[in-house]
Design the sequence.
């Protein structure tokens, strides 16, 4: 049994209900239920998550997945930056071979990042943006960023890309049969290797 898995739904009551069904797919795992806002506000939330759209409609489920992709599913920074930041913070840890290969495929010519430790609110984000530095921003975790989806979208329009020193790991998507059939509509939002657990 690994660490606790967070079951994240649009509302905590729905997350609690769905986590009981998730247990059938995650035998032996400890589960905890969160709303999206509750997960981001938690002091030390589980790093492994299952996304649990409400299931009321495919359209609303797609909105939830889009929000999760923009707000939670941020990659780790390239390994060389992790090592440099770890050296400064005395927390350097070795990256896995798989992570190094993935980085080689996606990091391209990235030459600089901006490290933002602690909480990042709108005032701090605006100051960082106006300073004209790198557009690749590294934070401790997605929960340290205290910005609304609209504010994040505006920053994305200015070229800001986020990564996290402690990224979340998407264990699975807990989907209705209708959402599972609509994979073509959400596959670009989630990692290609995402497991889909189809609920009754």
Sequence:
């Amino acid at each position: 049994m690994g660490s606790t898995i967070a079951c994240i739904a649009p509302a905590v009551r729905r997350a609690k209900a769905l986590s009981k069904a998730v247990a059938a797919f995650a035998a032996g795992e400890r589960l905890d239920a969160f709303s999206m806002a509750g997960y981001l506000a938690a002091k030390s939330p589980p790093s492994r998550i299952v996304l649990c759209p409400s299931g009321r409609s495919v359209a609303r489920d797609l909105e939830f997945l889009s929000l999760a992709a923009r707000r939670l599913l941020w990659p780790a920074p390239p390994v060389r930056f992790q090592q440099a930041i770890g050296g400064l913070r005395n927390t350097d840890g070795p990256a896995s071979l798989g992570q190094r290969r993935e980085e080689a495929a996606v990091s391209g010519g990235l030459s600089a990042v901006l490290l933002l430790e602690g909480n990042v609110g709108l005032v701090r984000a605006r100051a960082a943006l106006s300073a004209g530095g790198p557009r690749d921003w590294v934070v401790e975790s997605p929960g340290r960023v205290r910005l609304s989806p609209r504010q994040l979208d505006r920053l994305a329009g200015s070229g800001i890309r986020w990564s996290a020193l402690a990224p979340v790991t998407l264990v699975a998507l807990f989907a209705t049969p209708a959402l599972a059939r609509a994979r073509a509509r959400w596959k670009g939002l989630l990692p290609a290797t995402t497991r889909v657990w189809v609920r009754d």
Q: What stands out?
A: The first strand starts at residue 5 and ends at 9.
